[in-house]
Design brief:
This protein is an alpha+beta fold. Helix content is 18%, strand content 39%. An eight-stranded mixed beta sheet has the order 2-3-4-1-5-8-7-6, covered by helices on one side.
């Protein structure tokens, strides 16, 4: 799998509706996973979107989610640039360069969904998410 670069939008509780709207606009395949799908079935946000991904026939990829509990949602500051793929060395190299001189909000480490993930803001104030897909098996 080649590495992918795409926008990632955070929503204030209406990610499902927004991602379904973008599917109507662009077409394609939409996959939505809730917080309940990832081990929090009894939490108040269980039906909210933890991760959504739309892949379109034109080659566009758009990702989005509802802001996690305790994380402030501010329209206008609700996006990140996402880097994802399965090339561990390549993506870790990008992470090191992007986080240098910036700030790390989520260290690059294994997460509950099985991948290695981190969030940082580069020295220019741009938020980044890096997800390294772990091999299955």
């Amino acid at each position: 799998m080649a590495s992918r670069l795409n926008p990632y939008i955070s929503f204030g509780g209406d990610a499902r509706q927004a991602m379904e709207f973008y599917k109507e606009v662009f077409g394609g395949t939409l996959n939505l996973n809730t917080y309940g799908d990832f081990g929090r079935p009894d939490a108040p946000e269980a039906d909210k979107i933890m991760h959504g991904m739309l892949e379109t026939p034109s080659g566009f990829t758009l990702m989005g989610s509802d802001s996690p509990p305790g994380m402030e949602h501010t329209t206008g500051n609700n996006f990140s640039v996402s880097l994802s793929g399965d090339d561990d060395a390549e993506l870790r190299g990008y992470w090191e360069k992007l986080s240098a001189g910036g700030s790390v909000s989520v260290p690059l480490e294994k997460q509950m969904w099985g991948d290695v993930f981190g969030m940082c803001t580069d020295r220019f104030g741009i938020p980044w998410m890096v997800n390294i897909i772990e091999p299955q098996g």
